[in-house]
Design goal:
This protein is α/β, with parallel strands linked by helices. Helix content is 44%, strand content 22%. It folds into 2 domains: 81 residues, Winged helix-like DNA-binding domain superfamily/Winged helix DNA-binding domain (Arc Repressor Mutant, subunit A, Orthogonal Bundle); 207 residues, 3-Layer(aba) Sandwich (D-Maltodextrin-Binding Protein, domain 2), CATH 3.40.190. Strands 3, 4, 5, 6, 9, 10 and 11 form a 7-stranded mixed beta sheet that branches. It has a two-stranded antiparallel ribbon with strand order 1-2.
Length: 294
Amino acid sequence: MKIDDIDAFVAVIRCQSISVAAQSLALTQPAITRRVQNFEQALGVELFDRNTKPLKPTVMGHQVYQKCLAILREMDALSELVASDTPPSGLLRLGVPQTLGDAVLLDALKQLRQVYPELQPRVATGWGSQLIDKIANGELDAAAVLFPAGKVFPENIVGQSLGKLELVVVCAAAQLPKKPIKLADCYAQGWVLNPDGCGFRAGLQRTLGDMGLSLKVNLETFGTELQLGLVADGMGLGLVPRPLLERSLYRERLAAMVVKDFKPVMDLWLVQPRLLGNLQAPVAAFGDLVTRAL
């Protein structure tokens, strides 16, 4: 019975696909199939119902899967014990939300390379839930993500809150109301927001829905700075973290509205697998650098 065979078996269950499992382990599909078959032969039992699509484990396959997860956790712990004293080197795979990428990445990566010259940072952007999935699937070593306080992460992922980030409703400076208003007073102007999947947009839509109001999107586009430029041109309202407004090139043409009944706050989280070995120090440094950038 080989660890490589266990890895392949776990990957197939996790991905529900031999082809996706092969991609995640950088192997060919025949290699994955062969390893799963070797594992079944070693145990003397069929672990998958091969008449179903997507591929599903048998009852025994489910039980073996849970045992295999425990074995792999112990193997990871053993690897971390051995590797924790060696200098960090190789790939460091990091994730950041679409919203924060432009604001934090350049300086953070530059300083990481200065402190850890043997590391090769590689960055993925996406929504928070997508980045969490990538960590769970072993595709990322860590990510800075935005979620509400009290967020519960999957069992194999550790989340550390780095601080709170205030979101503000932004308008063109010339359109700023003279006194504080309610969300119902301004929502109909329409919004310049990220596409579906963005937590900011989802939170705004929930709040409006609770008030019996609908979300009117004038424009949807990626990139906070682009959104702020469109808001400055009078294309609608924006919803952005206050630090990104304050450092925007358009800040003189923008204003944060005082909305009495809508004051969203998100936590900035550093999330990672439970075991990182000698990558723990650079991941902690990355969290530090992102926090300082914001």
